[in-house]
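Why should sequence recovery work at all? Because a backbone constrains its sequence more than one might expect. Tight turns favour small or flexible residues, buried strands favour hydrophobic ones, and helices have their own preferences. The token representation captures these environments compactly. In the example below, the structure is given first.
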């Protein structure tokens, strides 16, 4: 079995993780200095949100150089040290690769917009206005109701950008673009990177000569882009990764929300290794809702023998503690996440039960308004929380109570509970690779079994605010999300795992 099927992958938003040089912004050496904490916690790999040179209009997702490190985060030498020391501790390192677009300050685009005959002109997507003077199509970009097209005065054409105007889309139909982007992958693979999370990778193929349906006119084009040629490009990307030893992994952000469509991006074992399942980010805290999400995911991926992924929070969405409210639900959700069949992703701070920060309007810096979920990690309960120069964003409320230091010292903390769950998963073949069986709902309690060989673990999650009787005579409690579980019943918002045999 490949390593990533067993793995728990820990997403680090570097700006907000740990600051080593007291400038208020997290960096690579900050991550490196916290590797022992991550080893202690028990994760298998880290995924770093973009660290490449960038004007930071979209905080790193607007890349101006794919083969270097932004000075904000350090240097290539710092990165090499991080990879080496992480590998020494058995922690793999993944990078966030941004194939759909570049920064408008990337040398490729600066050349492309210099002339219609420039070398890099066709590396981006340009169109004339329609004969009636209207835009090339009706697509809407992310975060607003603005069109995806911006007029370039110098060359007299529109260029496409599914995100900010500062993020022009690459033209993947041009083989030179595909070759250049493959070389960016090779640069990092040769430095020992274990794989990539691939930003909006389903969008690299496009059919710009068609409008979006009229009834979806005000929806961003991003979740609508689903073009057959993308699969050809993904097979090319997969072949690049397979040039290297060590089971390098591709993890796609395929933001389609339909598990059946997402499943096609695995191909026949020749496209993405993994694809994010975003339904779990938006599933309501109800047993019936999770029954549907799990069932739909298993059903969609089964025919293509694809491996599921599960995630509760990330840098683009509210933290699970904010969405669900209360540490009881956080622990129950964490139990569910780590008991499901598939690769699990933890967003840094999730192990603390950290909530979103409340960010005043004048402090908002992100174009998508996602500042709250990107609040810095509180490392200790001192006034600066381990950020001696202050941090670039406000901390979440009651940061001292949720700090790593405070929770390491408390056996009943969410951090210590998460660590026990990770150890349980790491040491349990049935949780790492067993099948899912007997998935059903009793009242508002979700029930399913994980089965491997002759071992059966039963997972129960009570989604209600009241107790619920359970009949598990002859079974043994393995772990519970509450401090004092009661035999024969589930407490309010309790999740528990029992050994049936």
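From this structural description, the recovered sequence reads:
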């Amino acid at each position: 079995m490949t390593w990533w099927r067993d793995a728990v992958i820990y997403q680090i938003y570097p700006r907000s993780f740990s600051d080593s040089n007291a400038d208020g912004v997290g960096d690579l050496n900050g991550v490196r200095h916290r590797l022992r904490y991550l080893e202690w916690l028990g994760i298998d790999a880290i995924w770093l949100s973009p660290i490449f040179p960038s004007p930071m209009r979209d905080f790193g997702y607007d890349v101006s150089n794919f083969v270097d490190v932004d000075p904000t985060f350090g240097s290539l030498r710092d990165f090499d040290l991080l990879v080496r020391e992480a590998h020494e501790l058995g922690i793999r390192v993944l990078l966030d690769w941004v194939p759909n677009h570049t920064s408008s300050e990337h040398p490729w685009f600066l050349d492309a917009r210099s002339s219609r005959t420039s070398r890099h002109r066709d590396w981006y997507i340009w169109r004339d206005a329609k004969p009636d003077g209207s835009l090339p199509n009706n697509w809407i970009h992310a975060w607003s109701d603005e069109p995806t097209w911006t007029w370039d005065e110098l060359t007299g054409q529109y260029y496409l950008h599914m995100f900010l105007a500062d993020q022009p889309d690459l033209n993947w139909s041009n083989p030179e673009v595909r070759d250049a982007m493959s070389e960016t992958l090779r640069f990092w693979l040769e430095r020992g990177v274990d794989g990539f999370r691939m930003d909006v990778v389903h969008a690299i193929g496009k059919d710009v000569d068609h409008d979006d349906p009229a009834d979806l006119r005000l929806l961003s084009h991003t979740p609508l882009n689903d073009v057959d040629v993308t699969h050809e490009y993904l097979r090319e990307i997969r072949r690049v990764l397979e040039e290297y030893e060590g089971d390098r992994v591709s993890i796609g952000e395929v933001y389609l929300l339909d598990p059946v469509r997402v499943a096609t991006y695995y191909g026949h074992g020749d496209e993405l290794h993994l694809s994010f399942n975003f339904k779990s980010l938006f599933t309501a805290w109800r047993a019936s809702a999770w029954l549907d999400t799990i069932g739909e995911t298993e059903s969609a991926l089964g025919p293509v023998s694809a491996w599921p992924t599960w995630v509760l929070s990330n840098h683009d969405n509210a933290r699970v503690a904010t969405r669900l409210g209360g540490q009881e639900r956080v622990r129950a959700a964490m139990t569910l996440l780590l008991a499901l069949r598939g690769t699990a992703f933890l967003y840094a701070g999730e192990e603390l039960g950290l909530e979103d920060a409340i960010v005043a309007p004048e402090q908002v810096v992100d174009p998508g308004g996602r500042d709250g979920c990107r609040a810095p990690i509180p490392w200790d309960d001192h006034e600066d929380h381990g950020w001696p120069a202050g941090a670039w964003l406000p901390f979440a409320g009651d940061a001292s109570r949720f700090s790593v230091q405070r929770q390491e010292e408390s056996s009943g903390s969410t951090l210590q509970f998460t660590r026990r769950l990770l150890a349980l998963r790491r040491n349990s073949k049935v949780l790492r690779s067993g099948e899912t069986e007997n998935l059903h709902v009793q009242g508002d309690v979700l029930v399913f079994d994980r089965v491997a060989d002759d071992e059966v673990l039963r997972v129960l999650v009570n989604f209600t605010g009241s107790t619920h009787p359970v009949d598990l005579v002859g079974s043994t409690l393995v772990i519970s999300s509450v401090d004092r579980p009661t035999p024969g019943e589930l407490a309010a918002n309790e999740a528990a795992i029992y050994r049936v045999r």
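A few observations help interpret the result. The first helix runs from residue 3 to 6.
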